[in-house]
Write the structure tokens for this entry.
Amino acid sequence: MPSLRLRRWTCITLLLGLLTGPWHAWGADWVVSVNEQNGLPSMTHGGAPAFVPSFDFWGADWSWTGYYPSVKIDGPYRYTLTGSNKALDFDIQAAIARPQAQTLTWDFDLQARSRQTGVKGGGIIWRFDPALIAGEMGDPVLLADNRGWAWGKNPQGPRVEMRFDRALAKVYFERGDSSEVRTFFYSDPIEPGRQQIKAQLSVTGDIDIGPTTSERFGMADPSNWPDDQLNWRTAPVDLSFLNAAEKPAGKRGFVKADGEQLRFADGTVARFWGTNVSAYALFRTPDEEIKQQAKRLSALGVNLVRLHHHDSPWVTPNIFGDLQTLKNTQQLSAESLEKIDLWIKSLKDEGIYVWLDLHVQRPVTAADGIYGFDELPKAHGVADMKGYLFVNVTLQQALKRFAEQYLTHVNRYTGLAYKDDPAIAAVLITNENDVTHHFGNALLPDKNVPKHNRLYMDLAKAFASRHDLPADKTWRAWEHGPSKLFLNDLEQRFYADMIGYLRDLGVKVPIATTSTWGLNGLSSLPALTAGDVVDAHAYGGIGQLEKNPLRSDGMIDWLAAAQVVGKPMTVTEWNAEPFPLPDRHSLPLYVAGTGSHQGWAAIMQYAYSQQVFYEGWVRADNWNAYSDPGLLATLPAAALLYRRQDVHPATTRYVFAPSAEMLYGQEISPANSALLRTATEKGRLQIAMPATTQLPWLQASQIPADAQVLKDPGQSLLADDAHAAVSDTGELRHDWQQGLYTIDTPMTQALTGWLGGQSLTVGGIQTQLKTRYASVVVQSLDEQPLTQSRKLLISLGSRAVPRPDDMTPFHVEPLQGTLSIKAPAGLKLYARSADGKEIALPVRFDNGQYLITFDGKRMDNWLFLK
């Protein structure tokens, strides 16, 4: 099924990020580099994966067996791979080198310790981009005598050949699919003994072999870097003045959706920059610490917090109480509700609004009276609702029961029910839960869920009959066509019923249905418009600034493609993984700059914390930004530029207006649409909903008169040879060839990306750094342009690496080089220690500019020139 292959491939794009990428200013469109996770070669085209390999081995009946190699960098372009497969009892080692500019070699040493029979064997699986196969590269071809493969139909290039010096056990296309080549070291049986196999990858044409990620960023030993200067209880900067006029949150009345904006009841535009507080942080944090963290969040510039994973079964206690003793989910825990009460009250007092979810990973138990409970997937002794919720009335009733208890609960600290508190900004019905892309397949005839399948098939047949659609196509959830019409209708029926129920309960604020997430295409958007806002989630990998929008999709593109004409857009989750990415300090600036330019109404990072705020328990991971200098280095700067709208909204509006046949009949997403990727580089991207006969509830978008209406998803708005783009306001510049992103406004000037080894100027600031990858942001704190301001915040981002076993404090890479700033005479430079004390630092003033020197030894993520 081509659509499934495409989805499988686009999932790989998110996983590839850390594994490969062009060297700073490498310049090549095609780059091969060694994957630091498995020691195999991956290739990118404009930042997008061209091919991705993995080690895979199987026992009997295709039971997958783990092989987890480690890779050591021995020197420039020299690596060692080691690993074992315990299930099949063999070891694989390899020495890897680049003997020539366009050649990589592997000297594999395989040692099988015992005879294994009845197994499938395995080796290296190569997955090729189907779009490149259909386009300029053509099909891979297998070399004679099981010696490997070659790819590239043009003899002059680009072309890649992977050749083994001896015949392998097997080399073949998986199920005849040329997008997957399998090169097996072992087949049945595996005989004990040693094999030495040499492999050589050769490239021709415009393909370069680049270094690994670690080589790109520099091979310094992080243990020699200084410790971070974070105190997890206090903020390194104080932006609480942004919330001063909003205390307590809700004073302007309830938030409402008004066209494409959010507004308070008094008419003021609501503009939210926020984060998530989740899981254990909600229920195990001491009361005094909840109040302290609310103050810290305000100081960091936050004015919206989403309370998330309140119901998830891996969190104990959760909103239902202690899962070890939980019999059913009919009642909510009074103790847990009291913690939620205090979070809401404490945030409200600091001028911070709250976003509530109704369902994240809500469990149900055997005692909850759920129809078809035996068919639901189980974990932690309870069952999951996702997907099944759309057809199972008893699950819908359980969610309604929870919503009533949760939203009508009276907060003991405010005296208001959640539904009556104007500090609650929005409500989400169900988190990351859809049948249009993710969970529809769970209901199909081959999934051994006869009760739920019967409900699903009956609804599909009725929809097909009602709209004269082919019944044999309408239920096929994995295909585009009639099924996407049916699945959108199935979702919308549930959403409309829930929204009506919530309004009858007295919910006054905007209601979101679910989010577009996890590579949802545009065909998932119609059902989401049933809500008052359209919400989006996106997670990226390394090198987001180096994604060439002509060829490669990035995290920003997946967010931008969720903006529907006539609806406010919110982002309740963004982040990048795996942790700790060395360039993560770039993301807040990239997200905030783009979001402000695109006119997004609310943006929330995931997550401020999932762990308890408790002395002695500060661990580093991707979901605890509160202790991570890698993100916190620029998160306050991002909050300030977004909330103050230093970056102005786009002056050009690009509206992609697909026909109904196009929207439901084919996969359209940033993965395969140049239009969706390039429009945001210049102006504001929006998606228009078409009139759809089979979906009478879907309101056709009223396209503004000033919009440029575009119909071809393959159209690019950039020149074919473009290497950079400037926004229509002139304030944002994205150079993907150099991996640079700059912001130039009167009150915020910033550079982030590969700054090292060159002199760069934006507005009144200039950097000359030796540090390869960094972020530098200079902002006015007194509402004056930078050249006139007497109170400046300087935010500096660099690599931040936790100690072994993810312990804090982090080691932070010290900057080396200089920063010059044009500003009035008479200012002094300060840093702030972890205990909040100001430390005077040397600074030179000459000819209207301050020159700050970074010595490569000391590191402060925040400086103050005042």
User: Anything to note?
Assistant: The chain has four domains: 2-217, 253-443+492-649, 656-710, 724-865.
